[in-house]
Amino acid sequence: MINRIRIIGLVSYFFIFLMGSMMAIPLGFLLFASFFDLDTLKWTIYGIIGLALVTYSMNKKSTKTIFFLNFLSLIFLLIPICNRLMLFSWDKFNFPLFYIPLLIFIICYLLSLIIECKHLKKSV
Predict the structure, then answer these.
(1) Mean pLDDT across the chain
(2) SS (H, E, C) 6-66
(3) Number of structural domains found in the chain
């Protein structure tokens, strides 16, 4: 159940569209395409590390360490989005293809963390 909610959140993370100068680009594509741009590479590495932490902890038994890694991956996944929010004006982000998937991602990921925390409290 936790993994399903987290997967829904990650799929919506990949479909967060960032408006470019001519068209909107999905964030998932931008994370992997920005390896060729050294200016944004330091911010996108956080997103890649966050995705790696999520995939590592996906099939592991829920422990305090795994919970901490999941929380850390949420922070790492939000860093590239926060960087884009600080770089550009709000007009570039004021459209439904940005904020609806972002809200779905944040709600699903926080919900999965809350459920995981409750399971940890029951097992202790």
Answers:
(1) 87
(2) HHHHHHHHHCCEEECCCCEEEHHHHHHHHHHCHHHHHHHHHHHHHHHHHHHHCCCCCCHHH
(3) 1
